[in-house]
């Protein structure tokens, strides 16, 4: 059987998983690929660890550029992360006519447009299944399985670290910081976990799915990004009392005015399957006009689940490396000349239902003032809950769920509510999604 030589850049969590799974399932994988896929060279700055993992099965170097320039290497697998060095390495590999597989969503979301244009010119594959929702074959589903559909919206739990944190906080009442440490230990978190907890990693993945779903260029800089660091256990509890779960959701929707591209904590009805996705698991709902809503579920992070996607890409490369660029699945699902920009809507222009929590002095008339402010702006109320003041407290929590309104309208209403003398501090606002239709 012919051999495909792989140069692996970075043998950390995902690189190590890739090396091990490829070794363990070698026979099964080559029966599928029609080629023996072999990691022949590994670059990692931690040479000792790389040598320990590879145990003599591959040449090890600390010079990643020597791998992308090595004429014996057919495919470069980039698993170092970050955008600066990774971009240089990937562009150099493409320039040298090598196919590329990467799990690096930051790289694709920020520099994908440039990378795919370079790859198209050189007739090489750039595959990135592992970059979105880890082991779930969501790129495959979006690019191939749903090709008949006009995609209407995509919504997903696409960051394992934050879903793990939210689950542990809800189920075990643990503090945010303790759970983050555990997620790091388990290999889920990014090198800089701010990317996870501030929603940046999810926004990278959402940007990629939005581009593939709607045939638009990658526009990460226009994404609205809000993480989970300000989320309180109290809001998670109140949401639950009202029949909802709070998840960090990435949502992208095609509307008449443009495309919504937003990541934020979101209340989802608990009866939805996606509301019950826990731990580091990911789930993505894609709504196509023909197929309706479809749900994809699986491990979104971790060594072997992510390796599963990396190796699936390697199998695709093995099968398709001799084809010409126009015989292959296009990088972003649409033919490159058919990628057309659509405006990304600012967050003020999106429409959503809302969860509002405010603290009010326990005086008569406050509720009437709040409902009048909402009514004056045509914001209708779906549900309301008032918590009696506890023990020595003189203030009560009021929780309101609204029907759908434009965010700009809600901003004005919140400002007016916060200006009421009886309202203490600021109003907590969380967006809600039905995800049904
Ligand atoms: N950990 C996960 O669950 C997932 C990670 N990813 C992505 O996969 C990529 C790799 O992530 P991890 O494996 O978690 O990271 P990691 O930090 O465990 O591994 C990175 C490896 O690259 C090596 N490295 C760093 N700088 C280098 C340099 N200049 N030259 C040579 N080697 C260098 C490090 O020594 C390390 O072994 C990232 O882009 C990440 O976003 C994607 C999906 C899931
Ligand atoms: N840090 C990421 C890793 C996978 O993409 C996550 O937690 O989802
Ligand atoms: Na994937």
Automatic annotation (TrEMBL):
It is an enzyme of class 1 (oxidoreductase). This is Homoserine dehydrogenase. GO terms for biological process: methionine biosynthetic process; threonine biosynthetic process. It comes from Methyloradius palustris. L-homoserine binds at residue 190. Keywords: Amino-acid biosynthesis, Metal-binding, Methionine biosynthesis, NAD, NADP, Oxidoreductase, Threonine biosynthesis. Belongs to the homoserine dehydrogenase family. NADPH binds at residue 105. Gene3D superfamilies: 3.30.70.260, Dihydrodipicolinate Reductase, domain 2, NAD(P)-binding Rossmann-like Domain.
